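Exercise: predict the fold of this chain.
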Amino acid sequence: MAPDEEQLRADLASCRFKVGELKQKWKLVQLDFPTVHFRIRPARIQDGPEWFLLRTDCSGYPGQAPTGQLWSGITNAALPVEERPHGRNGVLIAFSPWNACLYHPVDRMARGHWPNQHAELAWGPNKDITFFLETVYGLLHDPQYIVSKAKTAAAFLPGEAFCAVVAAAKSKAAAFCSASSAANTALCAPFWLTTMLIRTHYRAQSSSMVRGWTLSGNAAGTKVLKWWPTCTHIRRASAKAASIEPIP
């Protein structure tokens, strides 16, 4: 193993890095040296993503600074500008598309734009990967950050698609359980596991193709939770008759 990769792996195992993970500031996603992917948690904003994916190149570490940019797991390419963190005047400058890196002194590709300036923000002999991630985390908590159109799936690499389904299923299951009656509470524990399954859902005016959990109701207000193990065609007589709706 080359010295730069060895040192990076040691720093990724350090207490400082692990504390950041425990605080859910970031998460190591994939290490394929010199490329390393992390998920970084941004400030919470209305309709904003819970995570951004950061792709870094750590060649020469720690002698030279990493370089990185926000990444899309959907396209496996740089996150489109319109999906990056924006303020009132457009995309935040640190995430501008001027080059394939962060426009910030901590990034080795951008450092030359501030010669002999911002030493406190720049890479140095005593810096490590945690310093780099703390910097990005801070940029994503800039008070100017007010909007992003990034999709949830963009924060997951192609091989992690299943993880995205799990996360979405847990969230939907929690919402369902909070609205359920006491009689249905016992069903909530296994519910999110089954909602992770890939389901086919086709809805027409008078029929549906469903697979997975459905919640059916009638005019009397009775609700019945039912599991459809295979893709099933359900015909509905009319909109006023008993409805069968797949839980999204």
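Check your answer against the key: The helical segments are 3-12, 15-22, 129-139, 161-179, 188-195.
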